[in-house]
Amino acid sequence: MTRRFTGWHMAAIVVAFFGVVVAVNFTMAYFAISTFGGTVVDNSYVASQKYNRWLAEARAQQVLGWSAAVGLDTTRRVRIDVRSPSGPLLGATVVAVAAHPLGRSPERSLSFAEAGGGRFLASAPLPAGRHLLRITVHRDGRKARFNGSVPA
Predict the structure, then answer these.
(1) Average model confidence (pLDDT) across the chain
(2) CATH value at residue 95
(3) What is the pLDDT of residues 114-136, one digit of tens each?
(4) Which listed site, 12, 18, 71, 114, has its alpha carbon 20 to 30 Å from 27?
């Protein structure tokens, strides 16, 4: 004996369908919120007002021709080799901020001491894990910014 398809059957199918859609949406929203590490800028309008200045700073940095190479020594201290077009950049001041790529751990400020030949060595080691670096190099009133990463 076959059963008839009634309005109750259709109502159950519609409720089950939308129940699955809602459950998937809530699950995806939960994962999106729980893994979001932060924002790039807090206020995009204010950032847009600074954009032309940032472009001018980038052009001035490009004219300097400075470059920075990032590495780690055996004690996990960050090593930065800074060069100018004429060779190693001597007498500079280097600072950096190390951040976890997903914002899971707090940012760490790093100070550097010149180790000779354009090489700068961090005063303290970084904990294990991957870090993104925002590096600032100052010399003779000129400034350059670099981004780097430290592998896990």
Answers:
(1) 91
(2) 2.60.40.10
(3) 998 999 999 999 888 889 999 99
(4) 12
